[in-house]
Specification:
This protein is α/β, with parallel strands linked by helices and 150 residues long. The protein has helices at residues 46-68, 110-126, 128-133; strands at 9-11, 20-24, 27-31, 73-87, 90-104, 138-141, 144-147.
Length: 150
């Protein structure tokens, strides 16, 4: 069994509404509580980082699956959204919505379109981050698959 280890260093010099620093490999940034949660909104925050982890894991997994399936794409882009519920002062990370946009070549077959749809769905359950948060955060997919104009 092979294991990979990832490390993060954090420095938080102040109190709740101050600004800290994190460093994890190439991720070096300031962190604070977001403005939406009455914080200073400087740098990134845990909510954005969880969304970023889920989104990047998903899109990389999808691209790898498309490559292994020999499904040629012209473009693969995505927008993702996180929904955080606030009830009686308790913040709950409820849902992440991924909206991948897959643009296939103009001569893509009906089978290619179906395969793109299947891979979009399979990538969500295959992504390591999706599996890590499964049962705690709902993940919704809203894929768009199009063929390029001639």
């Amino acid at each position: 069994m092979a294991e990979h280890q990832f490390h993060l260093k954090a420095n938080w010099p102040g109190l709740r509404n101050d600004v800290g620093d994190i460093e994890a490999g190439n991720l070096i940034t300031k962190v604070s509580i977001p403005k939406e949660m009455d914080g200073p909104g400087i740098g990134t925050n845990p909510d954005e980082m969880l969304l970023g982890a889920a989104a990047t894991c998903y899109i990389i997994t999808l691209a790898a699956m498309m490559e292994r399936s020999h499904l040629e794409k012209l473009h693969l882009t995505m927008e993702s959204e996180a929904i955080v519920d606030v009830t009686k002062g308790v913040f709950t990370y409820k849902k992440i919505i991924h909206r991948p946009n897959i643009l296939l070549k103009h001569n893509a077959s009906h089978q290619d379109i179906l395969l793109a749809q299947q891979l979009a769905e399979k990538a969500e359950s295959s992504c390591m981050i999706s599996r890590a948060i499964q049962g705690n955060v709902e993940i919704e997919l809203q894929p768009t698959i199009k063929m390029a104009a001639k």
